[in-house]
Every structure is written in structure tokens, then in C-alpha cells.
Amino acid sequence: MTLLSKVAKYPFTAEPFHCDFSHRLFIGHLGNHMLNAADYHSSERGYGMNYLNPLHKTWVLSRLAIEMTEMPHAYDKFNVATWVDGAMKYFTSRNFAVSSQDDGHVYGYGRSIWALIDTDSRQPTDILSIRNGLINEYIDTDTPCPISKPSRVQLSPDAPVVRTADVCYSDIDVNGHVNSVKYIEHVLDTFSIDDFKGRHIKRFEIAYVAESYYGDKLQFSHEQTGEDEHVVRIDKIAAGDNKPIEVCRSKVNFAKD
Amino acid sequence: MTLLSKVAKYPFTAEPFHCDFSHRLFIGHLGNHMLNAADYHSSERGYGMNYLNPLHKTWVLSRLAIEMTEMPHAYDKFNVATWVDGAMKYFTSRNFAVSSQDDGHVYGYGRSIWALIDTDSRQPTDILSIRNGLINEYIDTDTPCPISKPSRVQLSPDAPVVRTADVCYSDIDVNGHVNSVKYIEHVLDTFSIDDFKGRHIKRFEIAYVAESYYGDKLQFSHEQTGEDEHVVRIDKIAAGDNKPIEVCRSKVNFAKD
What part of A 37-56 touches B (C-beta under 8 Å)? Predict the structure, then answer.
């Protein structure tokens, strides 16, 4: 069997209606492009959702960190390169580099951690059992990804709840639970629009802890932990229940424009 | 000056995370692809946002109707063809046809009405004054668009408010007001997810009446007007105000799967 390249890149455009009031691509849409690049890359190499879903397995995003020196502006054409830099039994780490299609300059990078789960039991399943550990043929530890790994996000237990939202039809994706990128939008919607004036997101990270479903109520706790650093936790409250269960937590670092 | 073709088509993919629990493309994302196709088509022909915005003018979507015999499924590659079939002083009508890249079969059609406004006064401005009425060179009344025009959507004055939402950072696009596609998501989020089980949206229409902004509260009135027909009105309540002002109204027709 012929192996493909370890790194592959996919072209995207910063569509105008995917850009915020400052004409910069929403980081949620950038995250979506990264998830698409991951899906295309793994599918082309034989261990994507299209191969795994009929086997009752799927990839689940566990952590994502995005760090940008510059965000693509409306109409900018860019590539998202992606490669796997490590695979263990239950987790793989996958990196991303975002660069201009015009002059090749790098906008920023991403790092992510993925688990493979059994879609019946929702339990982790052995990544290296897939096609005899084929993913090991694609590990690339040479290509640089000069940003720190996703960190452990800390939040005070008494961080205030600033917003709630019901999980609706538009939140639920092909996997039947709230879409990973929707949480990114929800996190950013705990900020005032003024927080995005004169500054931009330098680093965004999110750790996914549990899945949430149609009918759940989400509640958002937001805490400022530094001059330009904020932490947001999302809890879910299932219908008929009143105990919040953590769904994800996120850290946002801003830089001045 | 060489004229381009009157009809142009643009390729899109039904990205997996842009599909709902039934693996069909969310109609909001299809609407976004249509808006992109309209933007590319008008920009290539000399009267797009990239030319108009520096002149303090922009296109504003007034009405959109989408009627589908089938919705693209996850990973389907499709084209959105678009053309202008009429231009008057203050309004143009633009049509869309969505077809498979694989076998050319038609998924459905769209019809839209656009106004050109002055971005300083927010008042309508003369479309035919742009490049000496260049748009008239591109009117195509031959290409078929076999769906009815956007209709006048009727709603009882006492239709109940079923949901409210604050306008947040993620709702606001490059134009500084709530993104047209976000309203489509909001309309669909007044339905139960069960409404989308065993049936699908056959026709969706929306009429945009006023703009809404960061800080507004949106309220959604929903009325069932037939076995498979529902009407949703969105009103805004500006901060410090308590008088609802109509922002848009929408009609959704379902068909059994």
C-alpha cells in the first residue's frame, strides 16, 4: 500500500459572512476549518469518520488550542495544513498550521487531542487496532508547531454564571450532540462586543469534558483571570434535573491590536 | 469591456459539521452558500461589495425563498448557480439553482430580492446608477427557476412569543448588524427537534424588515398555520426600550421524508 504524505494542506477562504464586525474570521469558523482539515486528512489516509462510522467508532475532539499572530480577514485565502504528531492507545495529537495562499506567511497554529470512541458504548476504543496501527505510519514529529500544548484550565468554584442557553436544533450536528464549534461561539458570547474592540484573540483553548444534548440547558460561568485572560466553563443541566455537569472549559487570551 | 456569462456557478461541499442530526445540510448554511455565490457573482461582474463598500454603498438582502426537493447530505459536492433576473431602481431579483457536482441533478432553487443602500444614510440608493446601469447587461430571464416568488407572510397579531435571545458577539457580521443567516438559525430554533424527524423542510422563506444590533433582545413568535406550515416573526427590543419592532418574518413548509 502506498502511503500518502504525512502533512496535507487544504484550501479555505475567509467568507465575508464568517467574519466578525472587525472583518476578521470568527475563531469558531477557523476551528471548523481545522476540524474539516482533520476529517479530510484522516479520511484520505484510511482512518476517517467515513471508514470508522460504519464500524461504530468515531473521533471525538478532546482538546483544541489555537494561537494566532494574525487572523485571516474577509476574502483572505488560506491553507490549513495538518498532521498527527503522536498516537497512543486512546489519544492522538494533531497539529495545524494556518498560512496564506498568496504569500505563504503563517497566520498561526493549532494543537488538538482526539479520542476514538465506540459509538454504542461511548467508551474509548483502541486507536492502534484500526487497520493494524496504520496511523503510526503517519506520525510526523519533525514539522514544527511552535505553540504550547493545551493546558489545564483553572477556574474558581465560585465563578459567576453570566448567561444560560437552551440547546436547540441548530446546535446539534451529525453526531447527535452539540457541535464542538457551537461551544466556541457560546464561550465568546459570554464576552461583551467591546472586549473585541482594539484587541483580538491571541490564544483560544477549550477542553471538552462531556457531551450535551438537545433539551439540556447550558450555563456559562465566566471569570477574568488576568488583564487579557478570561476563563469560561460551560455546564449542562439535563431536562428534569438540577445538577450542573461540566461540559467544557475554555481559556481566552487577548492581545492589543 | 468584455461581458462575462450571465449565469455563474460556484462549488461547495456539505461539510459534515454543517449538517444536522439527519446528516442533511442545515438550511442556514445553504443560505450562506447562496449569499456567497451572490457576492462572488456580483463582484466578478463589477457591482459587488468589494466595489460598492468604498463608495459607501452595500447590498442588503430583503427576501429569500429556498425550495428543495432534496437537501445535500454530508460530504455531497454541489454547485450553486446564480443569476439576476430583474433589476429596478431600488431592487434586484436574483435566482439560485443548487445541483449535484457528480451527476448534475437539481436539489432545489432559491429566489431573492436585494436592495442597494447607502451605508451612511441606510437609505435605498439607485442600483441603475452603478457603472451606468451595468447590471442591465446581465439580466437573464431565460434560465428557469421553477419555484414561486417570495410571498407575503401572514401572522396573527396574537401569535405567542416562544423564545427570546440576546444579540451577542457571534451574531454580528462584517456589516455590523445581525447576520442574515443567524436569523434563519433563530427561526429554526423555535421548533422542537422532533419537528425535523420523519420530515424535512420543503420551502423556507424569510423577509427582512429591519436590522438588529448588538445589545438588542430578539423575541420569536411562532404560529402553526397548516399541518406542515409554520410562521415565525422576529421582533427586536432595543436596550432601554420595551417596544418590539419587527425585524423579519419567515414561513417554513415541511414535507414527509
Answer: 39, 49-50
